[in-house]
Amino acid sequence: MIIKRVARAKINLCLHVIGQRSDGYHLLDSVVAFAEYGDVLTFAPSESVTLSINGPFGDGLSGTGDNLILQAARCFDRKNGQGAAIHLEKNLPVASGIGGGSADAAAALVGLSELWELPLPDPEKQLALGADVPICVAGQPLRMRGIGEVIEPLELDQDHPMVLVNPNVSVATPKIFKALNNKDNPAVIDGPQTGWIDWLAKQRNDLQAPAIAHSPVIANVLQALKQTAPMLSRMSGSGATCFGLYQTDNAAQEAALRLSARHPDWWIQTTRLTT
Ligand code: C5P
């Protein structure tokens, strides 16, 4: 039996930083949804746990030691001889604000729980792997609060064609949080039942300004996306990946073509935001 899971890219449609805990972690209020596109993980029965990696962003990633997928495997109370040959096809840029490591860890938790017929590790263990792991395990549109432990499922009105753009810079999340001037921004107010895009357009990503200060090219990405007339465009997480949402698949494909022609060195991926 081989189990396959897609570790879908996590998109923060808005991300408000509304406070800071005494341990330094920031309190967030964010509307999150997932892309169809992501890393692909497979799990096959084996006597020990091993990890192999390929894919466009696999180079330089270690399949040993502290890889989050192996850390996820260590969260289970497995029996002697219960192992897994895990393979990761790394399609998402690393340290790019769209889940990456957390999405892989979440896919590993769900895939291994199925392979080993063991319960999913509890939410605290998931959160200890990475603040975005529980939301990636949930894998559906949601509002997240706290540092990621308070999860409220949401219904967004419809799927949207989406273009993801990363200017090939990796961003270290702690640096961006440290550079935040204002840590007490207003929270997300409750969203509407319909008309989510209009509502989201009025929200913010509070990490966008410090991320641009760290990597000014993010401002160029946002400007280039704006020129393709998306319904909504914004940076996700702590960057540098930005997203544009479009009315039709054609509009998204045209936007991606235009962006690739002007910026052949950027990572540009057409996908859908799933609801
Ligand atoms: O938990 P994760 O590994 O994703 O977080 C990386 C770092 O980002 C944390 O060590 C912390 O410095 C910062 N962070 C934060 N507030 C959050 C999430 C992350 O300050 N809510």
UniProtKB/TrEMBL annotation:
One of its GO terms (biological process) is isopentenyl diphosphate biosynthetic process, methylerythritol 4-phosphate pathway. Residues 203-262 form the GHMP kinase C-terminal domain. Keywords: ATP-binding, Isoprene biosynthesis, Kinase, Nucleotide-binding, Transferase. The active site is at K10, D132. It comes from the Bacteria. Its EC number is 2.7.1.148. It catalyses: 4-CDP-2-C-methyl-D-erythritol + ATP = 4-CDP-2-C-methyl-D-erythritol 2-phosphate + ADP + H(+). Residues 67-139 form the GHMP kinase N-terminal domain. Gene3D superfamilies: 3.30.230.10, GHMP kinase, C-terminal domain. Catalyzes the phosphorylation of the position 2 hydroxy group of 4-diphosphocytidyl-2C-methyl-D-erythritol. Belongs to the GHMP kinase family. IspE subfamily. This is 4-diphosphocytidyl-2-C-methyl-D-erythritol kinase. The lineage of its organism: Bacteria, Pseudomonadati, Pseudomonadota, Alphaproteobacteria, Rhodobacterales.
